[in-house]
Amino acid sequence: MIKMTSRMAQIQFASLIDASQRQPIAVTRRGRPVAVVLSYEDYQASTQTIPFHVAKLISEIHPLRGKPAGDAMRMQISKMSQKATEEGLSEDDVMRMLDED
After folding, report:
1. Which of 6, 41, 93, 99 has its CA 20 to 30 A from that of 81?
2. Do 36 and 77 fall into the same domain?
């Protein structure tokens, strides 16, 4: 991962955005990483990842393999999504709840 200081990120913002289309860029302040700039596509992909504890729960409910496992997982996620919508929860609400320990 490429690193860039916060000062250089300010000065070369257009370059930062261009570079982030190829790979994530770590932005540092006083030598410590403080942020990561990544493409919108990479961000979207990262938000679609199922947290490990959710995947584990689903696999315990549906101990399948291959395509049947994928189909069962999609069905379970669809049911969970529908229930969350009925409860008035947004996707951000659900993700925040899943990330709580």
Report:
1. 41
2. no
Q: What is the pLDDT of residues 75-88, one digit of tens each?
A: 877 888 888 888 88
The continuous run of DSSP H or E covering 98 comes out as helix 91-99
- Its domain, for residue 15, covers 2-46
State whether residue 23 is helix, strand or coil.
coil
pTM (2 d.p.): 0.49
User: Residues near 6 by Cβ (< 8 Å), separated by ≥ 6?
Assistant: 27, 28, 29, 34, 35
Q: How many domains does the chain have?
A: 2
pLDDT in tens, 48-79: 777 777 777 766 766 666 777 777 778 877 88
Instruction: Round to whole Å and give the CA distance between 29 and 87.
Output: 42
Q: How far apart are CA 1 and CA 86, in angstroms?
A: 41
Are residues 30 and 58 located together in one domain of the fold? no
The CA distance from 42 to 56, in Å, is 24
